[in-house]
Every structure is written in C-alpha cells, then in structure tokens.
C-alpha cells in the first residue's frame, strides 16, 4: 500500500481525489490546508475518516510518514511544499505549473535530485488520447518530419477571483498545456520565442488575456500559438485547435474527436500537389491516457519500479521555460533565447 498526503484542499483537489479513489493500493493518509475546515470537509466528502488533518505539512508528514506528497497548492507555495516533502524523504507529484519562477523550478529539481526522490508534474494534456495518436503518427514518418506547428486557443471563461486580477493570465495559468503538448507531439525542444500580449477592449481581465507567440522548437520546427481568454463566439476546445504541417502532408485536430490527415499523392491539380486522406492509427494499448488518473498511475509505477515518469520535473521544466520565455519577450518586446535545461 502506497501512502500519500495531499496538501491544498481547494477546488482542484477534487480531481486528484476522484482519481485517487479509483486506484487500488493507494491510501490518502493525510490532508493539509491552511483552512482546516476545508480539509475536514474534503475528508468527509471522500470518506477519509482516518486521514490526519492539519494546517502544517511538516507536522502531518511527521505523524503519517507517507511515501509521497500530492501538491495541489497555489504556485507561490510550491517551493516550500517541495522542500518539506523531500526533507521527509517523500516522492512528490505536483499540480502544474512546476513552479512560479524559473529559479524556484531549478531549486525544486535540485532538491529532488539530492534527496533521490521522484518528482513529477500533472501535465495532463499529454494524457489526452489524440495527443498520443498524433505523436505516434508523426513518429511513424507517414507524412515526413513535422516542420510547422500551429495552435489556436480561444475560450472566454468568467472565472472570477484571482485569475481576473493576475498578470500574464493566459501565458502563466493556461498556455503551458498547449506548449507542453506541442513539445510532446513533435518531439521538439524550445530554442527561442517572440511573444506579444494585449488586452482587448472587451476583456474582463486585468492583464495578459490575449497573446501570440512564435517558438523555434529546433530541428527546423516552428510553433505558433494564438490565444485569448476573452474571445466570445466560435470557441475552441480547451485542448486548442491544431494544424501540423510536415514534409509530405498535414494533420488537423479540432481539439475534440475530429482528427484527420492528408499525405501528398502523385500528380498535381494545376500548380498544387494532389493529396489523399491517410488514416491516423487508433490508440495503442501501450498509450497512457486518462488525465489525472493516468498521471498518478504513471507516478506510482515509477516509484515501484525505480523508473522515471513521463512528466518528470527534469523534462517539464522545459515546457515551463517556454512560458517564462514568452512572458519575458512580451515584457521586453524582443526575441528571447530559451536555454535547454539539463535532464
């Protein structure tokens, strides 16, 4: 039985606990939150009568001695939670983003390495079925190597609360999902970015609800991102809408179930090469999906086998670097180089 303590009992904790109760061999032995009544309410809601409840993570870890910590706190508290978990010899699975700054991300990763503990991030868009299918299809070489990746994200949520007041709201709170998916689908790594943010007249956010960015992903691959959190009408999926252009064809994904591809065929229609539909294979049994559930299972498997989880912090920091590179570019008005973090 693997014992875990969950810290941060806000709304997002429900997704973690919904997944956790589907997993045999996993026991939530403690709940931590600055609001003890909120932690107690979660315990009642999920039938965790024997879980230790507290406001101090150190105290609950001392009492329960778990194998791992589930971190669902606000990003500003992530470094403190991570250092506490590693000091108690716990593995750590954290909600995205990995950290609230590049320096704190490096501190967390270094602490995990020193402690010899597994550290991973809930970057759950990688566990979407069509993201897996696209990666496998592109890896097959059926349409050649990808060269241009385009993602649109246009949704208009009225969150209320802190998001509507935060700076760089789209880039900092949401864009990492799209950035990480792009990295994964085309096996690219960020080299540089140019980004512009703006606040449309119809926006109800304080700053940064709309952004456009161009990334160099290395190896001749360029990724363009266009997004808005105040675009009413014709909204995209929360996964975005994608076009991936390769050497001999293209893939289109609407972010829902609409996934199709075309490959260059023989002959031309006038001055344009003919194309023909080509099947994108269905999911392989080895593909890991199911969002939070899939990631938690992957994390547990890594602990049990001594392997690395797919969304390990040492990889995810490069998706986070895309976010902070884009923010720096938007603030300075210049192209920003993105240093590759060591794995």
Query: How many distinct domains?
Result: 2
Number of helices: 10
Beginning-to-end CA distance, first to last residue: 30 Å
For this structure, what is the CATH homologous superfamily of the largest domain? Dihydrodipicolinate Reductase, domain 2
Order of helices and strands: EHEHEHEHEHEHEHHEEEEEEEHHE
Overall residue-averaged pLDDT value: 95
Family: Belongs to the Gfo/Idh/MocA family.
Protein name: Gfo/Idh/MocA family oxidoreductase
Domain GFO/IDH/MocA-like oxidoreductase: 131-251
Domain Gfo/Idh/MocA-like oxidoreductase N-terminal: 2-121
Q: Mind sketching the topology for me?
A:
Blueprint: E1 2-7, H1 13-20, E2 26-32, H2 36-45, E3 52-54, H3 57-64, E4 68-71, H4 78-87, E5 91-95, H5 102-115, E6 119-122, H6 129-139, E7 146-154, H7 169-173, H8 175-186, E8 192-198, E9 210-216, E10 222-228, E11 241-246, E12 249-253, E13 259-269, E14 272-278, H9 291-305, H10 313-332, E15 336-337
Parallel strand pairs: 1-2, 1-4, 2-3, 4-5, 5-6, 7-10
Antiparallel strand pairs: 7-11, 8-9, 8-15, 9-10, 11-12, 12-13, 13-14
Helix pairs in contact: 4-5, 5-10, 6-8, 8-10
Would you give an account of this structure?
Helices cover 33% and strands 26% of the residues. The chain has ten helices and 15 strands. With 343 residues, the chain is α/β, with parallel strands linked by helices. The model has no long low-confidence stretch (mean pLDDT 95). 44% of the residues are buried. Strands 14-13-12-11-7-10-9-8-15 form a nine-stranded mixed sheet. The protein has helices spanning 13-20, 36-45, 57-64, 78-87, 102-115, 129-139, 169-173, 175-186, 291-305, 313-332; strands at residues 2-7, 26-32, 52-54, 68-71, 91-95, 119-122, 146-154, 192-198, 210-216, 222-228, 241-246, 249-253, 259-269, 272-278, 336-337. Helix 2 links the parallel strand 2 (26-32) and strand 3. The longest helix is centred in the C-terminal third of the chain and has 20 residues, at 313-332. It has two domains: 2-117, 3-Layer(aba) Sandwich (Rossmann fold); 129-284 and 320-337, 2-Layer Sandwich (Dihydrodipicolinate Reductase, domain 2), CATH 3.30.360.
